[in-house]
Hints:
The protein has five helices and four strands. By secondary structure, the protein is α+β, with helices and mostly antiparallel strands. The protein has a single domain (6-116), classed as Threonyl-tRNA Synthetase, Chain A, domain 2. Strand 3 and strand 4 (107-113) form a beta hairpin. Helix 1 (6-25) packs antiparallel against helix 4 (78-89).
Amino acid sequence: MEHRTKGQVEALISEAIIKFEKEYMGRGPVETKAYIIKDMVFIRLKGVLTPAEEQLAKSPEGSDLIKRTRMQLLEHGRVLLANMISSITNCQVQSLHTDISTKTGERVIVFTLDMNLEEMLPEKD
């Protein structure tokens, strides 16, 4: 990983997720932050709902539809996401977990890795 710090790897992951959201989902988040915690990468995306989804989310049925649709879209992009994370971290992705809040417009994505990435990265140069 060419002597990258934990913060540098987290920034690369955030940039890759923003690019994925824009290219694959059609719209980027307002804010994205990645956190490396032991053998996990936790990503928090803010402002992911489109204006149409915000309107749809005002009903329970609409919220459920958004969650199911977003889950299905991410499931179809799972291999692409796993490959992105693997190429940045040099770790294999073991699993991916995600959820989206139709109330706050936030999405979380958690990747579990085959190694403790946090141990492998220096905090600072």
